[in-house]
Design goal:
The chain contains no helices and eleven strands. The chain is an all-beta fold and 118 residues long. The strands form two sheets. Strands 2, 4, 5, 6, 9, 10 and 11 form a seven-stranded mixed beta sheet that branches. It is globular. The N and C termini lie far apart (40 Å).
Length: 118
């Protein structure tokens, strides 16, 4: 059984910073992808950033240059450093973990609220 626990959300003023963490536990395949998604009220869940176990990253255009995703493979933990936050970044942020062994395995965290006040 795989379990993801997010932390680090909260209330911050526009222009401020937050760092989200997501720790995975359980039987985890070493070659995996970890991502952060977010869902704002009334909107669909969207991909924010992703990172492979080898360190390749990708970002949504809306966060490029402001957010940085990183991971610690020894701790099975992924981070999202969010700088220069905007009110439109307000959402519930979800951690995602996946791998193929042999079929696609996908796990989600419970979500953490990020609120940016303008």
């Amino acid at each position: 059984q795989v379990h993801l626990v997010e932390s680090g959300g909260g209330l911050v003023q526009a222009g401020g910073s937050l760092r989200l963490s997501c720790a995975a536990s359980g039987s985890i395949f070493s070659r995996n992808n970890m991502r952060w998604y977010r869902q704002a009220p009334g909107k669909q869940r969207e991909l924010v950033a992703g990172i492979t176990s080898s360190g390749t990253t990708d970002y949504a255009d809306s966060v490029k240059g402001r957010f940085t995703i990183s991971r610690d493979n020894a701790k099975n933990t992924v981070y999202l450093q969010m700088n220069r936050l905007k009110s439109e970044d307000t959402a519930v942020y979800y951690c995602y973990l996946s791998w193929v062994d042999p079929g696609l395995q996908v796990y989600w965290g419970q979500g953490t609220q990020v609120t940016v006040s303008s």
